[in-house]
Design brief:
single chain, Gyrase A, domain 2, DNA polymerase, domain 1, RNA Polymerase Alpha Subunit, Chain A, domain 2, alpha+beta, 3 domains, four-stranded antiparallel β-sheet, 331 residues
Length: 331
């Protein structure tokens, strides 16, 4: 029997399967037709771009001036050494720390891999990844800055963040190696048009896949939270070039109020130049202006009332925007 709905169905089933280490598969259903992709696609993008991970952002090698240099006793040149280093995935052991500088020293014949870089401050989640080959004459001393972040940051943007002597590295923070989904049709109460999301998530081991999923969901919810705030609708007929005439009053000089010399001088001495500064003030703040007598205060309040602006209808976001613009104008 066909029914007319007044709200879409809400999915009730969530199945999580561990495919292998650091790899899970989610089955989420049932979704109304067209809803599954609306959820899965933005979630996939956030998993790949907004999940925080760790990466080396700078390296300082003793005796090396730039990345095209070489190190005595090391088979690989510095450029190749750096490429190998960026393929090693670290994790800062102290969750309270966002950045650490770790120092290493190696001598003699040895083949270095990720496991040789683990110490009290950092874990290495790719212990078998190759780093360098040293011979018996080698002496390799270097320091790495490891930082927590999201997405990809090129070395050009990192250069100014590093202490002198450090070579900047392209930073690949994202710990999610794989985030793919498929949409399948399922049958619900004789209706074959319902949908199921099958989502595969795999990480490099810096964080668990479920943790990555929760992090992406938190980001998605925070991005949508703005729509839960008060939404003030401005009639397009009352606005010009994105700013209403009412808003423009905030940026007019206080001379436009036609105040007496006494009142004007009191405001000027207090550093108040624009009408918006008065409108954004609480009554208590206005009364605390130095050398502002009761007669002048009454005059100013009367002039403000004549403007006909209901400040209670101005949202906190708009107040902040006005205050920021006034600050820029005065600076």
């Amino acid at each position: 029997m066909n029914k007319i709905k007044i709200a879409p169905s809400v999915p009730t089933n969530l199945e999580v399967e561990k495919v292998k280490e650091n790899h899970i598969r989610l089955n989420v259903y049932p979704y109304e037709s067209g809803y599954a992709i609306s959820i899965a696609h933005p979630l996939r993008r956030l998993l790949l771009s907004a999940t925080a991970g760790y990466a080396p952002i700078g390296i300082k090698i003793e005796g090396v001036q730039h990345e095209f240099d070489s190190v005595r006793g090391m088979l690989e040149d510095v450029a190749e050494f750096i490429i190998n280093l960026k393929n090693i995935r670290f994790k800062i052991k102290d969750p309270e720390k966002e950045s650490v500088t770790v120092e290493y020293s190696f001598e003699g014949a040895k083949q270095l891999s990720g496991q040789d870089l683990e110490n009290e401050e950092v874990a290495v989640v790719t212990p078998t990844n190759f780093l360098a080959t040293l011979n018996e004459d080698a002496k390799l001393n270097f320091a790495i800055i490891i930082k927590r972040g999201i997405g990809y940051v090129p070395s050009e943007d990192i250069r100014t963040l590093l202490p002198e002597g450090f070579i900047p590295l392209d930073a690949f923070f994202t710990p999610v190696k794989k985030a793919v989904y498929s949409i399948e049709n399922i049958l619900v109460e004789d209706n074959p048009n319902y949908e199921k999301i099958v989502f595969d998530i795999e990480t490099d081991g810096q964080i668990e896949p479920v943790e990555a999923l929760k992090m992406a969901l938190d980001v998605l919810q925070s991005q949508l939270a703005i729509f839960n705030s008060d939404i003030n609708v401005v009639d397009s007929k009352e606005s010009t070039s994105g700013s209403s005439s009412e808003e423009q009053i905030f940026f007019e000089k206080i001379e436009q109020l036609g105040l007496s010399a006494r009142s004007y001088n009191s405001l000027e001495r207090a550093g108040i130049e624009y009408i918006g500064e008065l409108l954004l003030m609480e009554p208590k703040e206005l009364k605390e202006i130095k050398n502002l007598g009761k007669k002048s205060l009454d005059e100013i309040e009367e002039k403000i009332a004549e403007l006909g602006i209901d400040m209670e209808k101005i949202s906190p976001q708009m107040r902040q925007a006005i205050a920021s613009k006034l600050e820029k104008i005065k600076s």
